[in-house]
Amino acid sequence: MRHDLLADVFSAIKNAEMVGKKKIIVGSSNLVKNILNILKEKDYIEGYEVLMKNNYQELVVKLKTKINELKIVKPRHSFKKDGISKFKTRYLPGEGVGFLFVSTPKNKVITDRELDNEGGIVIGYIY
Question: How far apart are CA 56 and CA 60, in angstroms?
Answer without folding.
Answer: 13
